[in-house]
Amino acid sequence: MSDIIFVHNREMGKAFIERLLGKKPIFTCVIGITETAKIPGISAAGKNPELTYYTPPADVELLMLGKCKCIQGVPVTPEGIPTPALITRAALKLADIPTVIVSGGLKVKPQVPFVDLGGSPGRDIRSGRAVDYVEDVLEKAMMLGENLAKTVDYLVVGESVPGGTTTALAVLLAMGINAEGKVSSSMPSNPHRLKIETAKTGLKASGVEFGALANNPMKAVSCVGDPMMPAFAGMVMGAADRIPVLMAGGTQMSTILAIVKALKPEVLDNVAIGTTRWIILDKEADLPGLVQQIADVPVLAINLNFSSSKFNGLRAYEAGAVKEGVGAGGACIAAILKSGGAVSTDKIFIEVEKAYSSLCSDF
Amino acid sequence: MSDIIFVHNREMGKAFIERLLGKKPIFTCVIGITETAKIPGISAAGKNPELTYYTPPADVELLMLGKCKCIQGVPVTPEGIPTPALITRAALKLADIPTVIVSGGLKVKPQVPFVDLGGSPGRDIRSGRAVDYVEDVLEKAMMLGENLAKTVDYLVVGESVPGGTTTALAVLLAMGINAEGKVSSSMPSNPHRLKIETAKTGLKASGVEFGALANNPMKAVSCVGDPMMPAFAGMVMGAADRIPVLMAGGTQMSTILAIVKALKPEVLDNVAIGTTRWIILDKEADLPGLVQQIADVPVLAINLNFSSSKFNGLRAYEAGAVKEGVGAGGACIAAILKSGGAVSTDKIFIEVEKAYSSLCSDF
Predict the structure, then answer these.
(1) CB A48: neighbour CB atoms within 10 A?
(2) Residue B48: its pLDDT value, please?
(3) Mean pLDDT across chain B, nearest whole number?
(4) What is the Cα–Cα distance from A6 to A30, expressed in whole angstroms?
(5) Chain B touched by A232 (CB under 8 Å)
(6) B321 and B78 Cβ atoms separated by less than 8 Å
(7) Is B99 on the interface with A (CB under 8 A)?
(8) For an engineered disulfide with B91, which of A176, A258, A277, B332 has Cβ 3.0 to 4.6 Å away?
(9) How high is the pLDDT of residue B266?
(10) A360, A330, A301: which is closest to A4 by C-alpha?
């Protein structure tokens, strides 16, 4: 288990991991889109802003099929660096982990089975009215989480929503969390000023002051969030009553944590965050600093390192590109735990290199 | 286990049941609609033909929520006899069985989470081009079945598609199975002549002769089937490689069996049909006679009896109304097996009466 780094709340993290060891997980990936991603410079989760609508469906096609259907190749940043879904796919495949895709709200549907929660695509948060049907989606997601919790020993939830760290920042601010300069980015250089400006424009448009919605997270999401949020939080709330839930993601997980804490704090002792080493190394973000403002849950990271890769597109992760997404870190942790260590970061790395060489063109 | 009747292939049925006893199931319900249901006199799965579009979503709302959202009350026949989803709900609730809803193709979406397989509503089979995207839906359903099979010990699949016995008949004829006068009906008096005429009109319109599509079931479905079929068959094919599958339904299950046999016969030794006593008692239909023409799988029936009910709407089942649907028979069998007999037909009956008295108005 030396492949897992205990980042925050070390003892609780170790206890959490012990409960999961050798047990049967299900991996779910919540996808959604927000027009916020089309603001130039906000997101690198797509070759260009228009393509960000295709990134979430393409990501989950890759998870389920080993290749994308709605786009050629795989989602890449404008620099050509590939989606972390390559990592997630490798982990799920090696450990034979069942996968269920969940839509929070999309423009382009994936060509794989997915759970529809009745959500719709998110608007640009500068409108101040970003997401519709948040309560409905939350309720349906709880139902889904509750039912999935009856099938397996623990739940892993990942996400793919381009622009998602900006919406995460805005919701954190609405809920009174000191988050400026702390959310991560898929770009090596984090556009904090643009994100803060975007978030504040959204808050102003919705008439919400810093902290005004600390106890009303669904209002915060409807004003300045994205459609992944109620779906993700609802699944955690529905499942964590019964089984442990590993929230697989980077700084966006702090927003989910804040939502869950406001709506159902009693499940938090059954929750941990699983992320990547790249998120932890990121000096321009602060996941532990966000988490400790919200709730005392463990933060774990997968000790995956691409510095010895043959490919520029993968070595770029070591320079701070992409970092996390599509539940990559959590999926790796689950793969190692499910297999009792038979799946390792070495094996995942080899599998990712194989997939990269068959699906991506290096530069 | 005296609550389970071994109808066909008794020894195999007993062995099948033994493999399931005490194990963990998931119940899935595949819903879809076909405009065939709007032919006057074809279906009783709705108060009137227009309402049949609402029956499948209302049925699964009842399963997940204990009440319907898209209609008032619960789906009823024109005589006011309630949906068998009341039985399914009672069984799933008593045995705490997780449930996943799957859409094959709908006009009205349910207000609960459901898996979208990319299917669309079915046309009147008299057009000869009844269902679109059959191959796509089949493939996605296989993926879903495969993933669900990694979470639990066995899969139960039910369905709700008004007009479904007529489309079942038509596909059976296209595949060369002697099915005239053998499919069941939700009405006490089975409109066999109307069904046969409808099926034959569809076959003629598509230029398909009796038996011409014995080896091409997806073509048969696209010509004269309904959108539940590729979804249901695909899930069976995807899951039965790995775990036992109980196909929960009446005579429509013979059509699914024929599809699975044509496309993936090697999984059939992992498959059984679970239905109700009312289907077996039906003198105007012949489920065993259909099954034995296709494949040697066990047929089991739940020995549920409503003759002592306080309510006319439930006693009507004993007079041949409704009989089966929404996986009622298979859900009861799974509830008994999961609970090791702690859930019985008596307990299910009491629970159904309770639900009837709170949701239905007796007549």
Answers:
(1) 9
(2) 84
(3) 97
(4) 25
(5) no
(6) no
(7) yes
(8) B332
(9) 98
(10) A301
